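Render this sequence as a predicted structure.
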Amino acid sequence: MTKRTTIDPAPRPFLKWAGGKGQLLAELVKRVDAAGSFGRYHEPFVGGAALFFELCATGKLKKKALLSDSNANLIEAYLGLRQSVEEVVALLETHALQHSQDHYYATRVIVPKTLPERAARIIYLNRTCFNGLYRENSSGRFNVPMGRYDNPRICDAPNLRAVASALRKADIECRPFETVLDRAKPGDLVYFDPPYHPVSKTSSFTAYAKGGFGEEHQRHLAQVFRELAERGVKAILSNSMTDFVRDLYADFRIDAVDATRRVNSKADRRGKIPEALIVNW
């Protein structure tokens, strides 16, 4: 891992995100380094943004990055934190003082009016919900039950301030992933971390946004990945190591890397399993 030099403390993901890439950072950074110099960095499924924060902290970003996602609530958390970090910190401290089962479910139902309040709401729910799982119902409402934590860390003020500083080096937009084709230029670098194709019928966690992310979305993503390669835009993609994914990306290099999965209804299916890291060069 490259020595961090630019931000102290180094920013880390402020959201617990199912499938977050903290444990795969070393492998991802290897592939970023293998890509060589690049122009703008794009992350169309921003999620926890672990790779963005690592690249930012290690000085690998030479231009303003572009972070995006189709999940409007997620994007509001990023925008609110970048815009008004001290207000978000104060609101989270209040949430921490009031945290209880009643407060959690009341907060889950009510959507505040201001951007900092909405950002703090999403962060609070994420830090206290079951397994840090982000899931929306068909109406776009967050519907994860409260988790069982003795002392959840609801407000990590030093990291939130470091994150806000890092986010000032990025444009942040609510957009579908395919619009990267409208913005990425030859020499740019794109990292796709989509909702994973399920490895079994009981392991699907694709409802991170209204409408889900099914096989047709996966096929469309593979087409976008291929078109970027044809345009001279370098891209890295992570997904589950399934036959379906291997078939979709059969024309590209696919490496298996071990990752620990903690989100599964059956304890015997948690643990290290191979995931796919795919590059288009």
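Summary. The longest helix spans residues 215-231. The beta strands are 41-43, 65-69, 170-174, 189-192, 234-240, 253-261, 271-279.
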